[in-house]
Every structure is written in C-alpha cells, then in structure tokens.
Write a structure and sequence with these properties.
The complex is a heterodimer of chains A (203) and B (265). Chain A is mainly alpha-helical and 203 residues long. Chain A has 9 helices and no strands. Chain A has 2 domains: 100 residues, Rna Polymerase Sigma Factor, Chain: A, CATH 1.10.1740; 70 residues, Arc Repressor Mutant, subunit A (Orthogonal Bundle). Chain B has 2 domains: 51 residues, Orthogonal Bundle (Arc Repressor Mutant, subunit A), CATH 1.10.10; 138 residues, Phosphorylase Kinase, domain 1. In chain B, strands 1-2-3-4-7-6-5 form a 7-stranded antiparallel β-sheet, with helices on both faces. Classes of the chains: A mainly alpha (203), B alpha+beta (265). At the A-B interface, α2, α3, α4, α6 and α7 of A face α1, α3 and α4 of B.
Amino acid sequence: MTPDMMTLAAHSALLHDTDSAPPHETLSERKRRFEQLVLPHFDAAYNLARWLTRNDQDARDVVQEAVLRAYRFFGGLRGEAKPWLLAIVRNSCFTWLAANRPAETVGFEDGAIELLPSDEDGPEMQAARNFDRKMLNDAIAGLPAQFREVLILRELEDMSYKDIARIADVPIGTVMSRLARARRLLAESVRAASNISGTQVPK
Amino acid sequence: MTNDEANTLLHAYIDGELDPAKTLELEAHLADNPSLRAACGRLREMSEAVRLKADYHAAPAWLEERVRAALPAEPKNGPARPTWWGWLKPAVSVAAVADWLRPAASFAAVALVTWVVALGVLRPGEDERITQEVLASHVRSTLANRFYDVASSDQHTVKPWLSARLAFSPPVADLSASGFEMIGGRLDYIGAQPVAVLVYKRRQHMIDVFVWPAEGQKAEHTLTRDGFNIERITKNGMTFWIVSDLNRDELDDLARMLAERSAAP
C-alpha cells in the first residue's frame, strides 16, 4: 500500500458516513488507520479520565480499556475522532465510577443555576488571575463529576458546546447550565479556600 | 433582556458560542450596565485561570505504547481467528484458510510465509531474549509497585479480562488452596507479542506467570538470574514463563500445578 492510498483511506473515513471500515481494508491497515486518527488524542483521553477518576492508576486502567474498546467499535466512527474517542472514555469513566465509587455519580440535580445578584461578589472577590495554582486544582477536583467534566472539556480540551453535548450525551442547554454552574461553584470554592487559609485577598 | 438572562448568556458569550443576534443584544446590555461588565470580566478571568493553571495530565508514554501493542491486528469478530497454535494442528480446514485469505490474499500469504519461517527457524537466542524480557517485566512491576492491571483473586474475573484483550484465552488457575494466592493479572509485551501475566503471591513473594500460545513443544527450562528463579514449561499449547524471588522448590510446585490445571475447561 502506498502512502497516498493510506491518506485516501484516512480521508474517506472522515468524509463519509460509513457503517464499517472499507471492505477491502486489511487488518494491519485498520490498525494503522486507528493509530493515525485516534491515537493522537491519547493524551486528551488520559486527561479526561484522570480528571474524572482523580487518580493516576484508575485513569490508566480506564483509558487502556476504553481505547481498546474504541478499537473494537472503530467501524462506527463518524465525523471527528476526538469527540468520538472522548465519548467512549467518558462513558467508561462513569461506568467505572458507578461500580467503584457510586457516591460520586449520584445526587446532583442540574436544576436552575442559583444566580447571585451580580454585584454581590464585587470588589472583595479575589481576582481569578491571582488564584493559587494548587487551590484551583483542588477546587476543580472537588466539583461534582458532571460539572467537572464539562469544565475540563471546555477549558482544557477547548471543545465546542456541540461536541461537549455529544460527549456527555446531554442537550446543549444542559451543557450551558452545567458550565455556568461549574464556574460558579469553582469561584465559591476557591474563595472559601482562600478565606480558610487566610490568604490575603489582593485588592 | 433581564439581568438574570444576561448573566446566563455571559458564559456562552465568553466561550464564543452565542449566536450573532443574541451577541448584539447582550453587548448593548453590557454597554449600559457596569456591574454586568464587571461580571463578564470576572468570568473571563476565571476561564483564563483554569486554562492556564489547571493541570493538564498527559498520558505516560509507556501507557500509549502498551495500548498500541495490545491493539489486535485482527477484529474480534473477524471471519476467522487464526492463532499461532491453530496452524500447528494438522487439520486446518481449507475453507477456513480460504475465508481468511479472501480479504487480502497477497498480504495474508506474505504473513503466512513469514509465520511459517518464524516457526521453523526459531533462533537459538530466542530463549535468552525472552528470559531477559520476562525478568525485566517482573522487576519493573516490582519497582513501580504496579503489579497488575486488573486486581482480583477471582479467576472468573481475571480470565475474561485478559481474554477480552488478547487473541487467546490464557488458562487461569485458582491455587489459593495450595498457598498461592492470585492477586490479579496484567498485559505485557514479550517476544514481540501481547501476552497475559498472572500475578500470584506466596507469603511476601510476588510471582509473575507469563502465558502465551506455544510454538510447539519445548523442554522444561529452569535458570537463576540476578537472584530470581525463572522457569519455563509448555503444556496444552501454552507456554508459561514463571519469574519470582521465591525459592526453587516452591516455584517447581507452582509450575507443576499450573501444568496440571492448564487443560482447557
């Protein structure tokens, strides 16, 4: 197989809604295509799993299993590989959490976002640019999983609302409200942590 | 537009996800509402802070390599699943071969020839290379304190976990009654192929049992290397390499029991 043919195979997978791999594809071509299209997003897969499981060892297990599963379902890939892979990783994470740490996946109603009057957190609120790095990471890790998930996908993976909706399998409106809620909770959490640790709030 | 609505839309606005009509409407609102402008600024800062300061966890390089190596070059439900040992059996049906060859006759033929050549001409250095690889794997897992990918003392958990990830199903024996406690299993890459590793424990000694389909019958083979006892047995179409710092007598016991239990259920 020439490099040109390989490029063509990769393109046809991106451009066409095919139910399965091209019928003429050999097994090693399939593996190579997977390596070209999907494995470049391995870090993104790991980052998401690491933030959702909050543990290196668990993230390794989940990602390993999820990527092997993705390979089995590779024929079902439509459109872009990154959201497709992240959807599989995300589902593996939640399945894993439900089995191993059920308390982390239950009980948070999306509900309405309680909006504080906009000037309540006025000048005394710590400017986000001065957030302590560790405090911020701890605060993100402390968010309920479904809010943490949209925040990571939006801010660290730079995914669009549409892709996040696809990955988390919720409507776009829910993505918006979860993201708003995530940022609100994060601000409150960092502020509370700053007060406890006695950090001087820069004016 | 009320203040509440505007506050909600701010998120989509700073994320560049607001449609043009709403954007104009919101911007008009921002222009004559200083506190909304301040809220918008804080939101941008928050978003910026997360982007700049939240940890991005890149995957360890070895993990990607391990997954890459474990990708079967063969779909799970392919038309036929030729296995190393399958080719050794005299009665491979012609239909099965033809079926398997159909997708890419030339490629398969080349692979087949390569296979046969590889089977026929096992280099004398092969055993030495595998000895080094299994020993390295054992030491690495001990150093990293990372003994298994799946932790379980239940053979009915470990076996399917391994089978789902390999092109073969390794025999997994529960030997706890004999004092060899199973603690889990992992995948590794030995002799240029993904293999199963069963992890047993006896007192404080960790024992790795590497399993893959055998390329024919081989004599038993024992040696000591760097203070580790290593043992190879071939039984019922499977090769077992056992590595541990456990004493030779007890390791022999384990090898014997593994051989006895390796018959397909």
